[in-house]
Amino acid sequence: MLSCREETELMSQRFERPLSFGERFGLRVHLLFCKGCRATLRHFMFLQTATRAWRERHDQDSTPR
Amino acid sequence: MTPHELSNAVSALRPRLLSFARLQLRDASSAEDAVQEALLAATLHVGQFQGASAAATWVFAILKNKIIDEFRRRSRQPQADADIGQEQEFAEALEEQFDERGHWAVRPAAWADPQASLEQKRFWEVFEVCISGLPEKPARVFGMRELLGMETEEICKELGLSTSNCWVLLHRARLGLRDCLSRRWFGEN
What we know:
The structure holds two protein chains of two kinds.
Chain A: H1 4-13, H2 21-33, H3 35-58
Chain B: H1 3-11, H2 14-25, H3 28-44, H4 52-76, H5 81-95, H6 114-117, H7 121-133, H8 136-147, H9 152-159, H10 163-186
């Protein structure tokens, strides 16, 4: 089983590439038992939501108001 | 829309363009230059836009290219000693989140209703403070990935980094931002 540190690497890479079946499976099992990593995954997902919202506030719907 | 109205509409984008460029370029004068060049290019092409919205999309696309040009230029320059030091300290601080077996030294806590933060002006100030607090390299890769919305492969190519190096920088940027937001925003709520 991977350590929390290594799992956070996969959780980050999840946004960059599709994880392999083994990686996904291992991560899922790890998350079942690890509250800290579950929180981290949600934090990473929120970072993506927030950066997207930041981008939209600036450049999308860029019609001058 | 007359060309005159259109060019006024484009000029009205200036504050948003500046704030967009400033967070990524991290220095007011290069942000100013990039925005100036993008606006100038738009003025020269003002006749070809169908309306203000098309013009705005175009100006943002130009600005993004200017930002990427600047990143490319910076990535070819030797890194300043201070930057290297800051990056090392940052990486070490992140390692301290884990114990020697790689398990959480201090278990990260869930954030209460993060979605609601997006509506709060003060959140965005903290968000920008946290991004500006990252060392140059992780901030640049993370900014290209999430603020400019580029593909990872493209980023590595532009900056001359290996894919695994890009991943390491993105991982550090995410851990660092999470830590900063936890302390500076979600901790105090």
